[in-house]
Amino acid sequence: MKILVTGGAGFIGSHVVRLLLESGYQVVVLDNLSHGFRQNVDKRAKLIVGDIRDSRKTKEALKGIDAVIHMAGLIVVPESVADPVKYYDNNVLGAVNLLECMRDVGCRKIIFSSSACVYGTPDKLPIKEDAAVHPDNPYGATKAAIEVYLQTYHQIFNFDTIILRYFNPYGPGKMGKPITHAIPNFIKATLAKKPIPLYWKGEQIRDFIYIDDLARAHIDVLKLSGFNIFNIGTEKGIKVKDIVEEIFKIVGFRVPIADLGKRPGDVPANYASSAKLKKAVGWKAKVSLPEGLKRTIEYYKQNR
Ligand SMILES: NC(=O)c1ccc[n+]([C@@H]2O[C@H](COP(=O)([O-])OP(=O)(O)OC[C@H]3O[C@@H](n4cnc5c(N)ncnc54)[C@H](O)[C@@H]3O)[C@@H](O)[C@H]2O)c1
């Protein structure tokens, strides 16, 4: 099978591309390199530098493709609050254009990188896929809007669709700026012996999923058809301040904490039920938090 990965030069995409190649798939990457890097793309994949809003480039990338893993998108929540139109244009319009190009060339299978953001502040924990969708920010709204388009394309054009709602991915790998993810920022501050920036005194509960486990889910769901939505998380909620303690334990020293106070719109707690994905394809998270953190710290030590 030949797979197109949009956004394959990004942090998560580069891991998915590597795993696809290791599993015997042919891979084409379409990325405009706005936040991704040429060197993130495995040499065995074909990189087409282009934008998902550009139909000519997108159709060129879709030649001979059996399925699309759609990861391209802007991902910075505060930026989406400041400029919702930019996020609508890039993410929603981009996705609809990609779907239209797929329809045009006759490719009808898509796996979409959605986010736990679609749930906003959840009513119940752990979060199941049938929980209400009410995103707290425009980034999450773009993900929810794309999910609705995917539902429609499944209904009227018979697309096979797998929506993966990621919880908090982390792991080794180069990320585009600004980096707003907690774990890389904590590790970088610790290694530089600078204070760790912590909102809410780290009382928020999150579900941190190691990048290899997350990437593997994309391969596992490729065999599915119809319309599917799955959470991808470890099912274990952990306080952000406990992540900081675990980092201190691994590096063997402590640095001060910079208390940044409360952040508006920050969800107090979210963690996944991934039982549905386990039942469908047998997937479950394998890498423990201490092991994942160790590997991530090692990466940042070597790539300061
Ligand atoms: N990192 C997370 O915490 C997280 C959580 C949930 C969901 N996701 C989703 O996973 C996907 C990948 O995220 P990531 O962390 O690897 O981000 P990333 O920024 O590293 O990767 C996104 C890639 O998409 C490319 N891109 C953006 N707009 C494009 C466009 N219009 N045309 C072509 N390429 C474009 C960027 O250059 C980048 O390489 C995104 O869709 C994101 O919303 C990420």
How does this model look, in words?
- The chain has 304 residues and is an alpha/beta fold.
- The chain has helices spanning 11-22, 55-61, 77-82, 84-105, 138-157, 182-191, 211-221, 240-251, 275-281, 289-302, and strands spanning 2-6, 26-31, 46-49, 67-70, 109-115, 160-166, 168-170, 196-199, 205-206, 208-210, 227-232, 238-239, 257-261.
- The protein has a domain at 2-170 and 208-233: Rossmann fold (3-Layer(aba) Sandwich), CATH 3.40.50.720.
- The chain is built from 10 helices and 13 strands.
- A 7-stranded parallel β-sheet has the order 3-2-1-4-5-6-11, with helices on both faces. Strands 7-10 form a two-stranded parallel sheet. A two-stranded parallel sheet has the order 8-13.
- α1 links the parallel β1 and β2.
- The structure holds nicotinamide-adenine-dinucleotide (NAD).
- Its EC number is 5.1.3.2.
- Belongs to the NAD(P)-dependent epimerase/dehydratase family.
- It catalyses: UDP-alpha-D-glucose = UDP-alpha-D-galactose.
